[in-house]
C-alpha cells in the first residue's frame, strides 16, 4: 500500500547572497512497512527533503514546490496547525543528536507522556503506563526507574532509544530517522539499528532513513535513493544498487569506502579509490549533470543537458546520459 | 515505484531573483536598527560638535531680564531661571554627555580587555581577578561613582574615572567569558602546537575572534555611562554646575518642573534619544556581528 | 619499518581529570581518562588507536602532543623524556610533533589567511630566514596537500571541509615534523572526500617518512592505512598488534565485538552482529578488575577481581585479558 508519494519536490532557500537550490526535483514513493534510505553527502539535500516532509522548514526563508502526498493529502498545502496534528502523531521523527532534541529540564517520562497526551488524549496516569511500556519496547533496562530520569543521566545510546520511543509513541505510519546512528559508537549503532529493524517488524511502520553511511543502508534499507547536489541520481532496491550500481557517483561512493578485511590481502595497502574534486555550489544554477565536473566519463552532453531519472531495469532508475553505454568501465 | 519522467525545461527559481541592491539599501533592509541608531547618533554628535554655528548664544550668559521665558522664536527651548538660553545649553551640554559616554566606553573597554584577557588566558590569575571584579560589581555603580567623586572631587575627568571604575568589571567578565569559549576551539590548540606563545595567541588568535561581543558591550556601557553622568549631575555630584550638562540642566529645572516643565523636558528628551540611539546601534551590531543570527544559509 | 629505538615511547602513561572540587578545592570525582598506557611507535610507522568514545584515545593524542599534561608516567621521544620539559626544549619538541584535529571548521582560525596559518609555525620555530623562504615553503606545502597556490591569500571560510582539512594537514607538515598525531582527522569528512584525505596522508607518509599516531573510531579506514593498532577501552589498552594480528586474529573479546559491529556496505553480508549489550561505563567509576567485565559475555570471577595486564601472545601481539582466547574458548 502506498503511504507516501513525493513528486517533483524542490526546495530553495533565500539567503543574503541569493537563492540556495537545496533540492531540485526529487520524486519517490514509499509503501507501508518498508524502509527507504536516502543517501548522500553534506549538501546533497537529503536532510532538507526530510524536513520538507515534516513541514519543519522556516516558511520565511524556504520555499517548496511539487507535492508530498501522505494519507491522501498534500502536506505542502497544509497549514502549520494541521501539520502539527500529523507531526509526532502520524509521522514520527528521530534526529542525529539525541541530546539537543530532548528537553534537558523534563524527565524522560514527561517527554514521552506529553506526546501521548497531546495526540491521543491519554490521562496522566495512562500516559505514564504507556511510556513505561514504550521504554521497555526500546530495550531500556529498568524502565520504571529510567522514566523519572533526565536526559543528562542517560548515555548517548539510551537517549537515542528514548528519542525512538517518543517517535513511536503514537504508533506513526511513517518514521523519519535523520542520521539516527551517526553520533553513536559502532557497538551502540548496531544495537540501535537492530532495534529499529525489530520495531518495524512488530509495528509495520514505514521508515525513511537519511544517512551518509552506506554500511548502515546495507544493513536496514529495502530501497535506496542516492542524492547528489539536490538531485536524485539513482534509485534501486538495496541489493540491486550494491550489486549493480549504474550512476558513476554511486559507483564512486561504493568504491571509496574502505572495507574490513583489507589487511588479509597480500602486499601493502593500496590507495583508496577517490572521487576527485568537490561538491558543486548550490548557490549557482547548475547546467547539465551536477556530477559532470567530477565524473571521469563525462562528455559534452553531460555539461549541456541535465539527465533525467530513467528506468533502466525493474525497479532501478538512474539519471545519467551514459548509463546505457555501460559506463561500468 | 519508478516515476515516469520526461525531459524537463530548465527549472525556474522558487524565489524571484532579488533585485541587485546597492550596499546602502542592503544595510537598511538587513539591519534597520544600525541605520536608525547610527544616524540618530551621528545627528546628535554633529549638533554637539557644531553647536557654535547652530544659532546658539553663549550658554553661560546670564540675562536676568529674560528669565523663565517660554519656548519662542527667540529662545527655541525657552530660558532658565537665570535667563540662559536652554537650546544653547542643551547643545553644549551634549558635548559633556557624549564625551563622558565615549570616554567611559573606551576606557572601560581597554581596562576590561586587559583584565578579561588575562583572567581568561591565565588560569592562575583568573580567580583573583574575578573575585576583584565581583567586589567592584557588588557596589551599585551610582554609589561607587558618588563615593569616588566625593573623594576626588567633581570634574569631568573624575566623573569619567568614577563611572569607568563602576562599569569596567562588566566588560571584564564578558571578555573573560568569550575568551574561555574561544580557548576551547581547536584552532587555539593548533596554535599552541604550532609553537605560539600565550601573548601571541591572545593577540593573533583570541582577540580578533572576540571583537563582536566587545563592541556591542561597549555601546551598552556608553549609554549606561551617559545615564549615570546625567544622574550624577542631577543630584549635584557630577560635573561642576558651571559646565552645562544634560543632568545639570535637569537639576536646575527640578525645582520648577511643575510650572516650567520645558526646562527639564528638552535635556531629558535629548538624553533619552541619545541613549536610545546608542542602544539601537548596539542591538543592531549584536545581530550583525553574531555569526549565528547572520543571514547565511 | 626501522629496527632502531622507537621514535615515541609511552611508559605507564596516566591522565586523570579531577572534577567538581568541593569548597576546599579538593576534587570529589576523578575521571580515569588514561591508565597505565604503554605503547611504542617507530619512525615512519603508523600506529592507530581505536576504541569507542570515552575510551581515552583523544586524551592520549592530546597528551602525546603536550596539550595536556600527563598525571603520571613518561613520554619519550628518541629515548629522551619530554613529559616535563618546558621553554625552548618544549618548542623544539613541538616542531617535531604536530597534530591534525577532527573538525576542519573549528581547527582553523577564521580570521587568518591560509598563508599566515601555514607560516605561523615557520616563524615560531625560526625555520625560515626571510619572507621569500616563507613564501616558497608555503607554496611547497600547498602543492604537497593538493591545493592551488592562490589558496594562500584566502580565508578558511572560502574552502570546503575537505580543503580545510588539507590546510590543517599543511599546517602540521609546515615545520617538517617527525610525528603527526591525527585525532579523528577524517571522521568529520564526507565519504568521497574521506578517501582523498586518507590517500593524501598515505602519500605524505611515503614521501616524508614521518610517523603517524592515527586516532580513529573507523575500523575499516584504520585497517586500510595502519601498520599497527592499539585497541583502548575505558582508558586502558586492551590489545596491541600489527594490522594482520588485530584484524585477522583478534584475541580480546572487546576487539572482536568492535570489529564485528562495523557496518559493511554489503547487503548480502549480514554477519556483523555479535552485539555488545549496554554502553561504556563511566570513566569516573570504572568497574574493578578488567574494565570490560560489565559488557564481556565471557567474564569470570577472575575478570571481576583482578586487572589483567598487557602480555605478549606471540609475534608483536599483546592482549590484556586473563585468557588466551576467550571467545574461541567459550565457543
TrEMBL record, chain A:
Q: Does the keyword Cell membrane apply?
A: yes
Gene3D superfamilies assigned: P-loop containing nucleotide triphosphate hydrolases
Please report the organism this UniProt entry assigns to the protein. Marivita lacus
Superkingdom classification of source: Bacteria
Which family does the similarity line name? Belongs to the ABC transporter superfamily.
Q: What is the lineage of its organism?
A: Bacteria, Pseudomonadati, Pseudomonadota, Alphaproteobacteria, Rhodobacterales
UniProt keywords, alphabetically: ATP-binding, Cell membrane, Membrane, Nucleotide-binding, Transport
Annotated SMART domains:
AAA
User: Could you tell me which CDD domains the record lists for this protein?
Assistant: ABC_NikE_OppD_transporters
Write down the membrane topology.
Answer: Peripheral membrane protein
Q: Which residues form the ABC transporter domain?
A: 4-254
Q: NCBIfam families, alphabetically?
A: oligo_HPY
Q: Where in the cell is it found?
A: Cell inner membrane
Q: What is this protein called?
A: ABC transporter ATP-binding protein
Give the main localization category: membrane
One of the record's GO molecular function terms: ATP binding
From TrEMBL, chain C:
Keyword terms, alphabetized: ATP-binding, Nucleotide-binding, Transport
Pfam families per the record? Answer: ABC_tran (PF00005), oligo_HPY (PF08352)
- Tell me a Gene Ontology molecular-function term this record carries: ATP binding
**Keyword ATP-binding in record:** yes
Q: Where is the signal peptide?
A: none
Major subcellular site: membrane
Q: Where in the cell is it found?
A: Cell inner membrane
* Domain (ABC transporter) ranges: 8-259
Task: Give the family this protein belongs to, as stated in its UniProt record.
Answer: Belongs to the ABC transporter superfamily.
Which protein are we looking at?
ABC transporter ATP-binding protein
The record lists the lineage as: Bacteria, Pseudomonadati, Pseudomonadota, Alphaproteobacteria, Rhodobacterales
Amino acid at each position: 500500500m502506498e503511504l507516501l508519494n513525493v513528486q517533483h519536490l524542490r526546495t530553495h532557500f533565500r539567503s543574503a547572497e541569493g537563492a540556495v537550490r537545496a533540492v531540485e526535483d526529487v520524486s519517490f514513493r514509499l509503501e507501508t512497512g518498508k524502509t527507504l534510505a536516502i543517501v548522500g553527502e553534506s549538501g546533497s539535500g537529503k536532510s532538507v527533503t526530510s524536513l520538507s516532509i515534516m513541514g519543519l522548514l522556516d516558511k520565511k526563508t524556504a520555499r517548496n514546490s511539487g507535492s508530498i502526498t501522505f494519507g491522501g493529502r498534500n502536506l505542502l498545502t497544509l497549514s502549520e496547525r494541521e501539520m502539527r496534528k500529523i507531526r509526532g502523531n502520524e509521522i514520527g521523527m528521530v534526529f542525529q543528536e539525541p541530546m539537543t532534541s530532548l528537553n534537558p529540564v523534563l524527565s524522560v517520562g514527561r517527554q514521552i507522556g506529553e506526546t501521548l497526551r497531546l495526540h491521543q488524549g491519554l490521562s496522566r496516569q495512562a500516559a505514564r503506563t504507556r511510556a513505561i511500556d514504550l521504554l521497555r519496547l526500546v530495550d531500556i533496562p529498568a524502565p520504571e526507574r529510567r522514566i523519572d530520569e533526565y536526559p543528562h543521566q542517560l548515555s548517548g545510546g539510551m537517549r537515542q532509544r528514548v528519542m525512538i520511543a517518543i517517535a513511536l509513541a503514537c504508533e506513526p505510519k511513517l518514521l523519519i530517522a535523520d542520521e539516527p546512528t551517526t553520533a553513536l559508537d559502532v557497538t551502540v549503532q548496531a544495537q540501535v539499528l537492530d532495534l529499529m529493524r525489530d520495531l518495524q517488524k512488530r509495528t509495520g511502520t514505514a521508515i525513511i532513513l537519511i544517512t551518509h553511511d552506506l554500511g548502515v543502508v546495507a544493513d536496514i534499507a529495502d530501497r535506496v535513493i542516492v542524492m547528489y547536489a539536490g538531485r536524485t541520481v539513482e534509485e534501486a532496491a538495496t541489493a540491486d544498487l550494491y550489486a549493480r550500481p549504474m550512476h558513476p557517483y554511486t559507483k564512486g561512493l561504493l568504491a571509496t569506502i574502505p572495507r574490513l578485511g583489507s589487511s588479509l590481502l597480500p602486499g601493502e595497502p593500496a590507495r583508496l579509490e577517490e572521487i576527485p574534486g568537490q561538491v558543486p555550489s548550490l548557490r549557482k544554477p547548475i547546467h547539465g549533470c551536477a556530477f559532470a565536473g567530477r565524473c571521469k566519463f563525462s562528455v559534452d552532453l553531460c555539461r549541456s543537458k541535465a539527465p533525467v531519472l530513467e528506468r533502466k531495469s525493474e525497479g532501478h532508475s538512474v539519471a545519467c546520459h551514459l548509463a546505457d553505454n555501460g559506463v561500468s568501465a | 515505484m519508478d516515476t515516469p519522467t520526461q525531459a524537463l525545461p530548465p527549472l525556474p527559481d522558487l524565489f524571484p531573483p532579488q533585485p541587485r541592491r546597492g550596499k546602502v539599501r542592503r544595510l537598511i533592509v538587513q539591519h534597520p536598527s544600525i541605520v536608525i541608531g547610527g544616524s540618530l547618533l551621528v545627528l546628535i554628535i554633529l549638533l554637539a560638535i557644531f553647536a557654535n554655528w547652530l544659532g546658539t548664544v553663549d550658554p553661560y550668559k546670564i540675562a536676568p531680564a529674560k528669565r523663565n521665558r517660554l519656548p519662542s522664536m527667540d529662545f527655541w527651548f525657552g530660558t532658565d531661571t537665570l535667563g540662559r538660553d536652554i537650546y544653547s545649553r542643551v547643545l553644549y551640554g551634549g558635548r559633556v554627555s557624549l564625551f563622558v559616554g565615549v570616554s567611559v566606553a573606551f576606557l572601560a573597554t581597554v581596562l576590561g580587555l586587559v583584565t578579561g584577557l588575562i583572567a581568561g588566558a591565565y588560569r592562575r590569575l583568573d580567580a583573583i581577578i574575578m573575585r576583584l571584579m565581583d567586589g567592584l560589581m557588588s557596589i551599585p555603580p551610582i554609589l561607587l561613582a558618588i563615593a569616588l567623586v566625593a573623594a576626588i572631587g567633581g570634574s569631568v575627568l573624575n566623573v569619567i574615572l568614577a563611572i569607568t571604575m563602576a562599569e569596567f568589571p562588566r566588560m571584564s567578565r564578558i571578555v573573560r567569558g568569550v575568551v574561555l569559549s574561544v580557548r576551547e576551539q581547536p584552532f587555539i590548540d593548533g596554535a599552541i602546537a604550532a609553537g605560539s606563545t600565550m601573548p601571541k595567541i591572545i593577540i593573533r588568535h583570541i582577540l580578533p575572534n572576540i571583537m563582536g561581543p566587545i563592541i556591542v558591550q561597549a555601546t551598552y556601557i556608553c549609554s549606561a555611562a551617559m545615564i549615570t553622568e546625567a544622574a550624577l549631575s542631577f543630584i549635584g555630584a557630577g560635573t561642576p554646575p558651571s559646565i552645562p550638562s544634560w543632568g545639570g540642566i535637569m537639576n536646575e529645572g527640578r525645582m520648577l518642573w511643575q510650572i516650567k516643565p520645558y526646562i527639564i523636558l528638552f535635556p531629558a528628551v535629548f538624553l533619552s534619544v541619545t541613549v536610545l540611539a546608542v542602544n539601537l546601534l548596539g542591538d543592531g551590531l549584536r545581530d550583525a556581528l553574531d555569526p549565528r543570527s547572520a543571514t547565511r544559509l | 619499518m626501522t629496527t632502531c629505538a622507537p621514535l615515541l615511547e609511552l611508559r605507564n602513561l596516566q591522565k586523570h581529570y579531577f572534577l567538581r572540587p568541593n569548597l576546599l578545592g579538593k576534587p570529589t570525582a576523578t575521571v580515569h581518562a588514561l591508565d597505565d598506557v604503554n605503547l611504542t611507535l617507530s619512525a615512519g610507522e603508523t600506529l592507530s588507536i581505536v576504541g569507542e568514545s570515552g575510551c581515552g584515545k583523544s586524551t592520549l593524542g592530546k597528551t602525546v602532543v603536550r596539550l595536556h599534561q600527563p598525571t603520571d608516567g613518561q613520554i619519550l621521544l628518541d629515548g629522551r623524556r619530554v613529559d616535563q620539559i618546558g621553554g625552548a626544549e618544549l618548542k623544539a619538541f613541538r616542531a617535531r610533533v604536530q597534530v591534525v584535529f577532527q573538525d576542519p571548521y573549528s581547527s582553523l582560525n577564521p580570521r587568518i589567511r591560509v598563508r599566515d596559518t601555514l607560516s605561523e609555525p615557520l616563524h615560531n620555530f625560526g625555520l625560515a630566514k626571510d619572507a621569500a623562504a616563507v613564501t616558497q615553503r608555503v607554496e611547497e606545502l600547498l602543492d604537497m596537500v593538493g591545493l592551488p597556490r592562490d589558496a594562500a591569500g584566502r580565508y578558511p571560510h572560502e574552502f570546503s571541509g575537505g580543503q580545510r582539512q588539507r590546510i590543517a594537514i599543511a599546517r602540521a607538515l609546515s615545520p617538517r615534523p617527525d610525528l603527526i598525531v591525527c585525532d579523528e582527522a577524517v571522521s568529520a569528512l564526507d565519504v568521497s572526500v574521506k578517501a582523498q584525505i586518507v590517500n593524501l596522508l598515505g602519500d605524505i607518509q611515503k614521501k616524508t617518512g614521518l610517523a603517524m599516531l592515527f586516532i580513529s573510531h573507523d575500523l575499516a579506514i584504520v585497517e586500510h592505512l595502519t601498520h599497527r593498532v592499539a585497541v583502548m577501552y575505558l582508558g586502558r589498552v586492551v590489545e596491541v598488534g600489527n594490522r594482520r594480528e588485530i584484524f585477522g586474529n583478534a584475541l580480546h573479546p572487546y576487539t572482536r565485538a568492535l570489529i564485528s559491529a562495523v557496518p559493511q556496505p554489503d547487503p548480502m553480508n549480514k554477519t556483523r552482529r555479535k552485539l555488545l549489550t549496554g554502553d561504556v561505563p563511566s570513566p569516573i567509576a570504572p568497574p574493578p578488575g578488567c574494565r570490560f567485565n560489565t559488557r564481556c559475555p565471557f567474564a569470570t570471577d577472575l575478570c571481576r577481581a583482578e586487572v589483567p595486564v598487557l602480555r605478549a601472545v606471540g609475534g608483536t601481539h599483546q592482549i590484556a585479558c586473563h585468557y588466551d582466547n576467550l571467545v574461541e574458548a567459550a565457543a
